[in-house]
Amino acid sequence: MRFHDVNFFLKLAAAFLVMLVAWMVPGWQFGVPLAIASVVFLAAVKVPGLRAYLKGAVLLVVLVIASWLVNLALQGQSLTNASTIATGMAARLVTTTAAFFFVMETSSPGSILAAASAARLPPIVTLVLSLTFGIIPMLREDFERIADAQRARGMEIDDVPFVTRLRFALARGVPLLVQAIRMAHAISISLSIYGFDMKHKRTTWRNVGLLVEPKLNLKDHKA
């Protein structure tokens, strides 16, 4: 099946279902295999940006386990119990982020708009969905471009200690915030130019069913 072309709402529902399973089932014995299976699925369907996600997932796992170990140790938990709890929490977060990473990376703003329009959702809901799942990948690309600009200016951000790399990564937040504000301003201007009105109901320009087709079949619509 063409997983990338599946209806946006089906992918979103599947992501929520995977998240619920990950958080409702206790114990790391189930959580770790589910997290590994989620990452393997991303690799199997060739999701774009997987390498960047894996880097972020490794950082997430390290930070979560370290913070929970310290927190539980201060509460008097044994190292064994703290390790199992921290590992389970990290596994749940990896599964959750992997599920929604798949939705974001395989859903273009056009496919989201088409699915929302076919479902006759209110314009404001359609706008929020398309912006939320469409802008996050673009911000990630801007984050990588900022890193490339730092490298071009002679800043070594790869072969440095982990703490230094983390500090440089956090330093990218300021230009990323500026870029996000500029993007939001550009989107608002574009909506105004094209006469976006929340009271106006729009039709879809795609054939949306189980899969999202790129265009309508005109032969089926001839009188």
From TrEMBL:
This is Energy-coupling factor transporter transmembrane protein EcfT. Keywords: Cell membrane, Membrane, Transmembrane, Transmembrane helix. Its main location: membrane. It holds the Pfam family CbiQ. It is found in: Membrane. The chain crosses the membrane at residues 12-45, 52-70, 82-104, 111-136, 176-196. Signal peptide: none annotated. It is a multi-pass membrane protein. It comes from the Bacteria. Belongs to the CbiQ family. The lineage of its organism: Bacteria, Pseudomonadati, Pseudomonadota, Alphaproteobacteria, Hyphomicrobiales.
